[in-house]
Write a structure and sequence with these properties.
It is a multi-pass membrane protein. With about 290 residues, the protein is mainly α. The chain has two domains: about 40 residues; about 230 residues, Orthogonal Bundle (MetI-like fold), CATH 1.10.3720.10. Helices cover about 75% and strands about 0% of the residues. Helix 1 runs antiparallel to helix 12, helix 3 runs antiparallel to helix 9 and helix 7 crosses helix 9. The radius of gyration is 23 Å and the shape is globular. About 25% of the residues are buried.
């Protein structure tokens, strides 16, 4: 009887998942399959590797290099700064105002991107921005800094990378039990030794996993960079948009699919690393 009840419960759970699975299949599965198949087809529908060859050469290879550089840099800076903020907040009283404010702000800022974010930065620290003029009135000239270059994109990406890191790493910090620190202290371990031998090794996998998640998040970002630079910086998503909008030579219509396949592989590898790192410490930090 118990086995029958358990089977019925699993069937009901699966039935409840069907709408979500259907949504994923239609809006994620079908487009992904279409991109993968199209990457290996020519204009006439025949099978070819020419699209992948074109995607692996310039200027598209350079776009992958630039996207990787920006993603790695913003992921590293965002991970370190976000960890420091989350560590400071975790030391505050549970349920306090500081935790609530930081959690709410991080949840909002992590998903504030696209055209509104680009406009906000241009209005703030653009060549005619409010902050630029205020600092100029104080004798600090930042007019030489450009939002439309590598440094500008990096700064704008950090706006949502740091809050995302706070959201991702905070549960791992909360999972560090006070009993472990007390046990280490009772055994004569100093604060530094506790973090080196206990806390650090436990936080390293979720930290590396969060680093990979931030890398994937930056690599796949499109709207912010497109609105800010108008395609000046050759990022992979911008190159894909240019190809899909018809800015290619005749017979290269599936080049965008090949670029999309490369982007899918990069993001999938980063997310797979994130999931693997999360599983390594899930039984300890829960």
């Amino acid at each position: 009887m118990a086995d029958l009840t358990s089977r019925n419960r699993r069937r009901l759970d699966l039935l409840g998942l069907l709408p979500f699975l259907a949504y994923v299949a239609v809006f994620l599965g079908v487009p992904t399959v279409s991109v993968v198949v199209g990457a290996f087809q020519d204009d006439a529908g025949g099978w070819t590797l020419s699209n992948l060859g074109a995607a692996a050469g310039d200027p598209y290879l350079h776009a992958f290099v630039v996207s990787t550089e920006i993603s790695a840099l913003t992921a590293a800076i965002g991970a370190v700064v976000g960890l420091a903020i989350a560590f400071a907040v975790s030391a505050s009283p549970p349920g306090g105002v500081l935790r609530q404010v930081v959690s709410t702000a991080s949840g909002v800022l992590a998903y504030f991107a696209g055209v509104p974010l680009a406009f906000a930065f241009i209005a703030a620290i653009g060549s005619q921005g409010l902050v630029t003029k205020w600092l100029g009135a104080l004798g600090l000239d930042i007019s030489g800094f450009s939002l439309f270059g590598f440094a500008g994109i990096t700064l704008v990406y950090l706006y949502f990378q740091i809050p995302l890191m706070v959201l991702v790493i905070f549960p791992a910090l909360e999972g560090l039990r006070p009993q472990w620190r007390e046990a280490a202290s009772n055994l004569g371990a100093s604060r530094w030794q506790y973090w080196w031998l206990v806390g650090g090794p436990l936080l390293l996998p979720p930290f590396l996993g969060a680093l990979m998640l931030l890398f994937a998040n930056a690599f796949a970002a499109y709207a912010t960079a497109a609105a800010l630079t108008n395609g000046i910086i050759p990022l992979v998503p911008i190159q894909i948009a240019a190809v899909m909008s018809g800015n290619v030579a005749v017979g290269q219509e599936n080049l965008g699919n090949a670029l999309g396949l490369g982007m899918i592989l990069v993001v999938a590898l980063a997310l797979a690393g994130y999931a693997w790192m999360q599983r390594r410490t899930s039984r300890w930090l829960r």
